[in-house]
Write a structure and sequence with these properties.
By secondary structure, the chain is mainly alpha-helical. The chain has 18 helices and no strands. It has helices at 9-16, 18-41, 45-72, 81-85, 87-98, 107-139, 144-175, 179-202, 227-236, 238-258, 260-266, 273-298, 303-326, 329-365, 370-373, 375-398, 410-435, 440-460. The chain is globular.
Length: 461
């Protein structure tokens, strides 16, 4: 018997468009914030990296706080949509602030300005918006196939936005006046665009009525839990722990790829090559995500496809490493596309996997903690992304990096090669091993069958 469907095509498109707004923030920060701060404002890469790392202390608390707030919210708009709508106003303001650091101020004032703007953006506004957005996957449909489709639509929009931002931003900054003024102007444009699209996305879907799914024999009343109890439920869910670590690693990987701006400028000799490499990644990702729902349906689940994908990604990144040392940009493009093809399945079905983890908690405990569960997406994006950016910044600074010189030192070149060519391979291997443990689909199937068997037994009695 086929699963009940809940969504029309325009709901899926509307939901997916929300990642246009998300990547107006995320893509701009990961690809260009560091090079703006070091090569335009003139701040120390090491100090900036430290400030980012300290900011993550606040992020670590706020992820679970806002996840809990979403779980406790009950409005006419639903649980998650209000938290997706209003915080994006703060996202827009703080995004502009991060790229509008007053150049006439002293160094200390500039560092303080950046830290406040960056922390408010990530720990408060983007956290609330992103957790709410991710949570909608579980709140607007119960159909597994539709959840995978939502993930595909979401990441198609995400990577289409990344294609645009990473391809045009460097040129647009020059066209908009160059220097600090150009960066401020492009940030304003992306902030306004994101605010408009986020609002459209919020009102394009509706949340389902709240229900409680307990295993037969448990209390049918809604299961209430405190914040600490919810945290314990997260930790006890082994699949949540695996998916959270995996999410953080994939975002560290994205940060490593993001230093392609430095790799292109100082190793390949042309910073505009970064745009070409980004096109190779993002176009491949979009094409792969279009066919992802059909592949998952054909393979009857996400488990095998994700593992096969990361084996392909490992081969692709090894090819990128060989091509990088050979100095062959065409081969780098080919193998970059191959590695992206392997990474695409997990990128597309990550939200569906988190929804399955949330379902596992509901089936085994009777507790619905969708907001807390989806906090791992925001936690992964920010902790993984910021940790990757911070560590890269520390290591590059320690290797003797000097901004805007024609030739970097041998130690700096070696560090850029390690971060861009070697470390992504290591992360792909670790993620592939973690995916072997992620058998949540099978576990949920067994629990649902148990539930049906219990119903039959009760009916016979």
């Amino acid at each position: 018997m086929s699963e009940k469907t809940y969504l029309k095509w325009y709901h899926k498109v509307g939901y997916g468009s929300g990642d246009v707004a998300g990547n107006c923030v995320y893509a701009l920060l990961t690809a260009f914030m560091m090079i703006y701060l070091t090569d335009t404002v003139g701040l120390s890469m090491g100090i900036v990296s430290t400030l980012i790392a300290v900011s993550k202390i606040f992020d670590g608390v706020s992820d679970f706080f806002f996840g809990r707030m979403i779980d406790k919210t009950h409005t006419k708009m639903g649980k998650a949509r209000p938290w997706m709508l209003w915080p994006y106003i703060g996202c827009s303001v703080c995004l502009v602030a991060c790229f509008a650091i007053p150049t006439s101020w002293g160094d200390t004032a500039q560092y303080v300005f950046f830290f406040i703007a960056y922390t408010l953006l990530n720990a408060v506004f983007f956290t609330a918006n992103n957790i709410a957005y991710a949570s909608l996957t579980a709140l607007i449909t119960k159909n597994t196939h539709e959840r995978v489709q939502l993930g595909s639509f979401r990441f198609i929009f995400a990577f289409a936005t990344k294609i645009f931002i990473e391809a045009v931003t460097i040129f647009a900054v020059k066209w908009l006046g160059g220097g600090a003024m150009g960066w401020r102007n492009i940030a304003i444009i992306y902030a306004v665009l994101g605010l408009i699209v986020n609002t459209i996305s919020v009102f394009s879907v509706k949340e389902l009525p709240e229900t409680n799914e307990c295993l037969v024999g448990e209390d049918k009343q809604e299961q209430k839990s405190s914040f600490l109890q919810s945290c314990k439920l997260l930790i006890k869910n082994k699949y949540y722990v695996v998916i959270c670590i995996t999410y953080i690693l994939t975002q560290i990987y994205a940060s490593l790829i993001g230093i392609g701006t430095y790799y292109s400028k100082y190793i390949l000799g042309n910073e505009e090559v970064f745009s070409t490499l980004s096109l190779s990644i993002n176009i491949t990702m979009v094409v792969a995500l279009i066919v992802l729902p059909f592949l998952i349906k054909k393979m009857r689940g996400m488990y095998k496809l994700n593992i096969i994908g990361y084996l392909i990604a490992i081969v692709g990144r090894i090819g990128v490493m060989i091509a990088g040392y050979a100095g062959s940009i065409p081969l780098m493009l080919v193998f970059t596309a191959l590695s992206t093809l392997g990474i695409a399945p997990l990128q597309g079905d990550m939200n569906a996997l988190i929804a399955s983890c949330s379902e596992y908690t509901a089936l085994t405990t009777g507790h619905h903690i969708d907001g807390m569960m989806f906090s791992c997406s925001s936690l992964g994006i920010k902790i993984g992304g910021a940790l990757g950016t911070a560590v890269c910044g520390w290591l590059i600074e320690a290797s003797g990096y000097v901004e805007n010189v024609a030739v970097q030192s041998a130690s700096c070149v070696s560090m850029l090669n390690f971060l861009y060519l070697w470390l992504p391979i290591i992360i792909c291997v670790v993620v592939a091993l973690l995916l072997l443990l992620l058998k949540v689909e099978k576990a949920n199937k067994v629990l649902r069958l148990q539930k049906e068997d219990n119903k039959i037994v009760e009916a016979n009695n």
